[in-house]
Write a structure and sequence with these properties.
Four copies of one chain form a homotetramer. By secondary structure, chain A is an alpha+beta fold. Chain A contains 19 helices and nine strands. Chain A folds into two domains: 246 residues, Hypothetical protein af1432; 139 residues, Growth Hormone, Chain: A, CATH 1.20.1250.30.
Amino acid sequence: MNTRKKLTLFNDPIYGFITIPNALVFDLIEHTYFQRLRRITQMGMSYLVFPGAHHTRFHHALGCMHLMQKAVQVLRYKDIVISKEEEEALYVAILLHDIGHGPFSHALEHSLVTGVDHEQISLQFMEALNKNFNERLTLAISIFNDSYPRKFLHQLVSGQLDMDRLDYLKRDSFYTGASEGNINSERLISMLNVANDQLVVESKAIYSVEKFLVARRLMYWSVYLHKTGLAAEQVLIRVLQRAKELIAQGDSLQASEPLMFFLKRESEVFDQTALKHFARLDDHDIIQALKGWCDHSDSILCKLSNMILDRDLPKVKLKNKKPTSAQVDKHKEKVSKALGIPMDQTHYFVFEGQVTNRAYRNDTQNINLLSKNGKLTDVAGASDQLNLKALTREVTKHYLCYPKGKHY
Amino acid sequence: MNTRKKLTLFNDPIYGFITIPNALVFDLIEHTYFQRLRRITQMGMSYLVFPGAHHTRFHHALGCMHLMQKAVQVLRYKDIVISKEEEEALYVAILLHDIGHGPFSHALEHSLVTGVDHEQISLQFMEALNKNFNERLTLAISIFNDSYPRKFLHQLVSGQLDMDRLDYLKRDSFYTGASEGNINSERLISMLNVANDQLVVESKAIYSVEKFLVARRLMYWSVYLHKTGLAAEQVLIRVLQRAKELIAQGDSLQASEPLMFFLKRESEVFDQTALKHFARLDDHDIIQALKGWCDHSDSILCKLSNMILDRDLPKVKLKNKKPTSAQVDKHKEKVSKALGIPMDQTHYFVFEGQVTNRAYRNDTQNINLLSKNGKLTDVAGASDQLNLKALTREVTKHYLCYPKGKHY
Amino acid sequence: MNTRKKLTLFNDPIYGFITIPNALVFDLIEHTYFQRLRRITQMGMSYLVFPGAHHTRFHHALGCMHLMQKAVQVLRYKDIVISKEEEEALYVAILLHDIGHGPFSHALEHSLVTGVDHEQISLQFMEALNKNFNERLTLAISIFNDSYPRKFLHQLVSGQLDMDRLDYLKRDSFYTGASEGNINSERLISMLNVANDQLVVESKAIYSVEKFLVARRLMYWSVYLHKTGLAAEQVLIRVLQRAKELIAQGDSLQASEPLMFFLKRESEVFDQTALKHFARLDDHDIIQALKGWCDHSDSILCKLSNMILDRDLPKVKLKNKKPTSAQVDKHKEKVSKALGIPMDQTHYFVFEGQVTNRAYRNDTQNINLLSKNGKLTDVAGASDQLNLKALTREVTKHYLCYPKGKHY
Amino acid sequence: MNTRKKLTLFNDPIYGFITIPNALVFDLIEHTYFQRLRRITQMGMSYLVFPGAHHTRFHHALGCMHLMQKAVQVLRYKDIVISKEEEEALYVAILLHDIGHGPFSHALEHSLVTGVDHEQISLQFMEALNKNFNERLTLAISIFNDSYPRKFLHQLVSGQLDMDRLDYLKRDSFYTGASEGNINSERLISMLNVANDQLVVESKAIYSVEKFLVARRLMYWSVYLHKTGLAAEQVLIRVLQRAKELIAQGDSLQASEPLMFFLKRESEVFDQTALKHFARLDDHDIIQALKGWCDHSDSILCKLSNMILDRDLPKVKLKNKKPTSAQVDKHKEKVSKALGIPMDQTHYFVFEGQVTNRAYRNDTQNINLLSKNGKLTDVAGASDQLNLKALTREVTKHYLCYPKGKHY
């Protein structure tokens, strides 16, 4: 290992300094695939609601890796054996766990590229990097895709208490100013342990876990599913959908080469060609396209693009009940008349949908508390009140978006 | 009003600056009754668990008054009429709401002075001050004791969302380092309103209220009812109980004059004489007495005193179930033998009791959300999950304290 | 005024909430000219050194306006008369003071657009907006360009203690994590006053002013003039210079329409046409162009573009002395040989220059302390030590950039 | 080593958690000598100016030990050999470095106990503990009194960049709310190194060191030497002086046994008897005595005691020049007349003195920067401006205290 590189530091307003643990991690960070994450915003369209939320996937990935270093230190202190190779693999796996994110992170997942989710693309990136780096990522990949026998290593990368969540709740809270998510990540990590090859927390951590689950729930409703951010995301999806439609019908349209590749693409197979184009795609391709489309002759494309660029977003109603067809149609008719577009195109401006929030999944994965006598208990059962039990229930809300009054 | 005084500022690490709004408030702060609060610790024995928790009732009272200024500003902005006189009365009432606290705040309430609680003593102090200040506190007193017709004014001083709670959760969190209580007080205040003469919050505040209630619940279990702090408090109560007993049986004992007054007193009537002595009593009388009692010939008094001074606290078990008599007796027998004291005096070292925590009382008082159309809904009902409903249930835990191994 | 709009809030992690004071300010914020600032990063290329530094001119402008509201409140409290019209004008002037910034703020000033600085462009934007808003910006403009008789109003917008500096030091410190700049803006504002129509600070603020000036000095060396950020900025300037050169010699080059306008432009007159194109130009035009140029046949353009995108920056030496020609030439020769380019093009990769830092200018503008007896003293003279006097001296450093070893 | 003890944690609002590194440290913390520090306030009378400043020597000592753990980790990482024994000795030495502080820390040093300073008393405590702990403190003592050959170990405990300063500036800043002292202790520690057996900092730390020295300077003027705190301290000194005088002339006076010992004592030899009494002395003895003396027949003692208890402090003028005898006498005459006391006793109420502040001593000890090529340079010489040089000059101010108007 190169000692010079070991001392490389990143300034981070949250943790102070982030240290690069070794030369492999250093070289991965320097790779063009990873540098691309500097141009992928962490929170999609949320910056239109929280003007401070311009932090990137690049920064989040470094933050997760920092927390992973803490976790390894804590677990080893508690006599959990983690070999040097496993340690390196953990850093690599968490560093690259989001490398498959596309423009605006989750906002365009499943719309710009269909048929694969970002984890699968991350895996493809890792495999491509593995070739470049003489197979040194093999162990990291097996931890990432959960094929490695020691399960708790995967849970540190992806689970109910993984380094990903411990970083993003804190980081998103910091940059948005929404204090709901300001969890004490380092405290939680200090109470991690391993029992029966599962990642668990010590039982004295029960209130910290409760705080973490409530923070997560509140961040979803207040920030990630904030109705205005939601509306912006839905509009962005519709801009691209319209662009695809126009291209499909033969209209000419400006777009960067990698963006055009995905706008034209019909296949759902994410092959090497797709990966090559995807590796060149970031937020700028989208925003720059929108800026060009503002002058396009198609008034729908033009109007939708402007809605994002000038933050002229639709009105949103977020309710417990699904809106009736009558309610939706009323708005569609107004839009059809006001904008002079046929009813079957009003769905670009009037649309409904639903969002769900479930703070704690105790069915598939759960958080176990480890008592001093070695007993494991699910945290929802261990709590002295039913409030955590209540958090296992999924909550669904329905939204209805339609243009603001001044557009009629 | 005296302009010079208006500009007086207190440095506060939490709010930056605290401004004294007028000369009356300034003069009350300078009064010897109020200065006494500099010598009353806010969190009783908690500093034995959280070494930073040495902040005082004096500081808390100033903090509450600061928040009250914000609240008045917010409500007036929303066109709630608050007269100049009511404004001054609010500041006076909140400033003095805790002036009746005795040594170590809640820790010795109901044991050193019996028959009255601190609110009643606060009222007596206010009435005494009212005489000194030419009846300028009359309105403040009527708001404090809830005899003033406009009920929301009282609720700002004492209620489920009063300035008291909004300050202490944040302040205690700050000084202990227990981040669970770090609520966003100013944000909550900005969403207060008044409907039907009740203090309410705007419905968009629902997640902030949820965070506040959960923070309160977690602060109780993690901090206020922390088992070691609990044990220390119970030992302190027993030191004074033992001192009273010894005095009652004619033993000689060192104590300051005001402390001796209360150790000897049998009456439960809190008259002017009691007030006069109480006004001279603070934490130092207790600690100084304990330091003297360390050499006392009564080994029980001596031992208990040392337990506080050297933080040599009992072991505590905190469980959902009440310990059985057999469990208690087993410890008592061990203590009786080890310390050579009769069984009927082992209760000084082995004792049990219970604590309760209820994050949200929706029976007597509740927090109502005000929707845009003017409708009021209880926050527990308005929440999209049952977790707030769960917080209305009272939780009881049972503790059992007994000496550490090395004492046997 | 529209009451509904008055309550509009922005979340800000630094100040908590930013309130929109009136409908004019609200409408200006909604204007496409102002929304453009969402796409202009505040700190140029600094995010390549401080990964958190992605905050924008949009956010900074809101922050300044928030501080201006505090300043107006403080000064009025001290009986400085500020009319309603002047108040509104102050908010408008500070909101728009940076609206003339182009891509990457200062990084490309004087290179992409020559002949004007960003203040002059800001003025042109304000004048354009003034037409749209029925001349309601006239007073704001006269405060901004210092033609309004009451000079302290201009100093609040632009001076040694203006709201601009009080926001950017704090904000840049927050987002970079460089704690050197974490000044106490609100405390400084609370000590502002006006004497002889000059903005002054009360004499008790002397140590706060000292802290502010030292913070500014340290932020320059540690952050704004950080050698790696400096190198990145210089590379970016050279990419555009190379692009202009290629265009001038007739090569074909991809660029968005507004960017192409400025790459082709030779005139230094910033007319309406220039303004129209400038209003559509932001960071994305630059980054997107760089991404396209990575494949260009010109190896210099291609290489320089990649250096930014993949953060493959040159080595930088920052010294007190100017490097000798021999030193520079040695690197140029290496580059010429390694990259196979003629000596007269090596200046794209090997270059020198200088930066200066002067924490406190007491010649043109100065900070005066107001003593209780009304006397004014320059802060450098009033300090009990010569350290502030020392800060009035300008410090110059010389940098030399050349490619890293692996490129030879 | 006892594993159970190793995991003991203290909550600290500044560093999160403080870990007890081993059983010896644990046992020392539990010792009655160390527990006494819970009753010694860190900042003397400063809480009368900064109401949050009630933190204790106990907490500060833990904080220093926490930073020492970081320092050991950093230096070992840089291949500086520190043996297990030296490591333990460093923790013990820093933990106990202030154990010799008496009531109100520096406020009463040299007045209650004369002839020795707190470091010498600390040494006596350490020697007494060394006997109790089977000579395990011998190495710690030799590091503390600088008789151990490896000098940098002593400098970590006591020097211009020791763990003491790195903790107290940050901690005092935190509890007072005076942001001037909020240094980045962990960053500074990360840049420590050892060269020629001297503790040095890496040259890239130059701006952090500058910030540290300026922070120290500003904390002295704004906080430690705040004129009101200064006045309170001087009054406290005079209360005890008056008490000694009355005792010397045979008056009867209430005081706890250990306090009385020192009030009566004339010897300057600090022997075992003195240590025994000193070990039982803390803030409470003083405050409790003052409370008793409020009713004393000597009006001077009584008045001075009240001035502290009710924070009825004198007026203070802090100037660059020494007040003239005429100025002092004028106030003395007023006091003599108003209070009816002879001129030769007015010095209790009217007094002058001086304070000095020197941010950086480069004569006896200095801070050296270590450049990459191994060269050492004094930080004041290395700075690009003369401002650090200016900080090496000692600044003296003169104060004059006299009663407030209402007392005449």
